[in-house]
Amino acid sequence: MPALLFTATEVQDVTPHMRRITFTGEPVAQYIATGQFPNIKILLPKADGSFDVPELDDPACGADTLVRTRPDLHERVRTYTVRRYDAQQQTLDIDFVLHGDEGIAGRWAAAAVAGSTLGAVGGGGRPIGTGERYLIAGDETGLPGVGNILENLPADAVGTAYIEVDGPAEQQDLQAPAGVEIVWLSRDGAAGGTTTLLADAVAAHPLAPGTFAWVSAEGSQVITIRKDLRARGVDRKAMLAIGYWRRGLTENGYAKKANHDRDLKEFDDHDHDHDHGVRGLAARLRRRG
Ligand SMILES: Cc1cc2nc3c(=O)[nH]c(=O)nc-3n(C[C@H](O)[C@H](O)[C@H](O)COP(=O)(O)OP(=O)(O)OC[C@H]3O[C@@H](n4cnc5c(N)ncnc54)[C@H](O)[C@@H]3O)c2cc1C
To answer: Whose CA is nearest to atom 7 of ligand 1?
Structure first.
């Protein structure tokens, strides 16, 4: 079974530093049918544009063995949010933060044009839980997830979404239930991961009983926010707080060092669908026949 190679058909800058890339075609339809959401594992091409991906049903490329058996391949895997997909039209959007040329994914996105390709080698993750109120907090990397969540919350949902961005030019028009307030926090040009804006906003937020908290941002702020929420009595089952990147570390370096600042206990009472990698994708494709 070949790897799924996605082809970009549209490249659009939502804001100066957020690039939406739409992928279309049969491989996208196949990926959508696997149901691996909300996050996708993308495989970036090598410098020469080739992929060199093992067959997906090769047991040597299972998610847990990938790191050991194919470190070269694993180095080129990154995690992104599926911002939106349309099973009928066979389209899938990913919003990439353009954060300079230091990372392979950011660099790929900055250079992407219609016809550019990347691999899809897995996915998974947890959707937001349910609460009587919602506290949502994200930086630019969490923003695609925030946008997705706000669009899909029930119309009578209430809560607050704090979104930290570089500056006013990075604010997007988001659809949200009338009862959910959106608060944009501006770093005024300071580099991502160097301020405590998001953590300060959450710390000042009064917590109503029954609140579900969803937090995704640079790791150091996520650690602070999780501690604060726990100290104020939010149960682990009522929060999903994950570091999406760590200043100074590549994604794989961050995963090795801190497993994305995940508190695995947050996941304890959910089903354990942690197989986000190649093997999970292969198994799902096989189940579809
Ligand atoms: C579940 C999940 C969902 C995610 N969804 C998205 C998404 O939809 N869109 C998105 O853009 N990102 C998303 N991210 C974050 C993304 O995976 C990381 O930013 C990743 O490090 C980018 O890879 P890269 O190759 O560009 O940089 P890497 O090679 O991983 O890192 C190179 C350098 O760039 C720095 N860096 C990485 N990201 C940023 C950033 N955003 N701003 C400033 N410096 C940075 C690193 O600290 C490092 O010093 C998500 C992460 C997770 C875990």
So the answer is: 80
